[in-house]
Amino acid sequence: MRAQNGDQSFVHRCRVYYEDTDAGGIVYYVNYLKFMERARTERLRELGFAQSTLAGEDLLFVVHSSEARYHSPARLDDELLVSAQVIELNRVSLRFKQQVRRATDATLLCEGQFLVACVRTDSLKPRAIPETLRAAFAAVSGAGKQSEQEI
């Protein structure tokens, strides 16, 4: 399913700590991926699904592919706003569009897309996203047409 433009935004707030920065005092590029991972996890939690509980139900979400574009650096003590919007919902995968913005001025720092697959915890083989979870994501993203593209 493709999400409609009426997506209910989700934003996770976080702070840049010393450990997130490189020798130049700016956020090391790979840490943006960590910020976005946390936002996806918090999006699940906001919908009522904790990753620890899902793992007990033989379900994990793993990143299948990622794409990131860096626009401007974040620095120590910056407060960040990290969005996590589902733009595609398939039988065994979700595609997230994410942005990292500086809270003080809304400057776009980094954006990306992540294809996240649902797999079994024991075998890491693809499995269908449970209907309750699909329904929760569909409710906040707006249901559209079925996508022909699966992982």
TrEMBL record:
The family database entries (Gene3D superfamilies) matched by this protein are listed as:
Hotdog Thioesterase (3.10.129.10)
Q: Which InterPro entries match?
A: 4-hydroxybenzoyl-CoA_TE, HotDog_dom_sf, Tol-Pal_acyl-CoA_thioesterase, YbgC/YbaW
UniProt entry keywords in alphabetical sequence: Hydrolase
GO molecular function terms attached to this record: fatty acyl-CoA hydrolase activity
* Heme in keyword set: no
Task: Indicate the transmembrane segments per the record.
Answer: none
Looking up Pfam families in the UniProt record yields:
4HBT_2
Top-level taxon of the source organism:
Bacteria
* Keyword Aminoacyl-tRNA synthetase included in the entry's annotation: no
Q: Which family does it belong to?
A: Belongs to the 4-hydroxybenzoyl-CoA thioesterase family.
NCBIfam families attached to this UniProt entry: thio_ybgC, YbgC/FadM family acyl-CoA thioesterase
Q: What is this protein called?
A: 4-hydroxybenzoyl-CoA thioesterase
* The organism of origin for this protein: Pseudomonas trivialis
